[in-house]
Amino acid sequence: MKIYHVTTQKKAKAYHQTGHICKPVRGFDCLQAAMAWAIKVGRTVIYEVDGNPVYKLPDHHNMFGCAWWIDDDVSTDKIKCVFSADTDA
Questions:
Q1: DSSP reduced 3-state for 23
Q2: How do residues 59-89 score in pLDDT, each as one tens digit?
Q3: How far apart are CA 67 and CA 27, in angstroms?
Q4: Which of 80, 75, 73 is nearest to 31 (CA)?
Q5: DSSP code, position 78
Q6: Exposure on the CB side of residue 28, measured as CA atoms within 13 A
Q7: Which of 26, 42, 67, 73 is 20 to 30 A off residue 55, Cα-Cα?
């Protein structure tokens, strides 16, 4: 399943330096929900993360989508940047 993970520029840089995102990796099931969350919490990078299995979070949902988490580290070869305020805005 693909989820959309919202993060900061600083953490995004650390992901690429270490080669992975440390677990738990949280995200939303659609980009619109992730964008709404990013605005709410002031984070500027969104990654599309491919991972299985995923588990539904009991909170953090919004009117656009549901929140999920992956209970494993996710390597950077399974992520793709779909939005960065530094380059896309």
A1: coil
A2: 888 999 999 999 999 999 999 999 999 888 6
A3: 6
A4: 80
A5: G
A6: 20
A7: 42
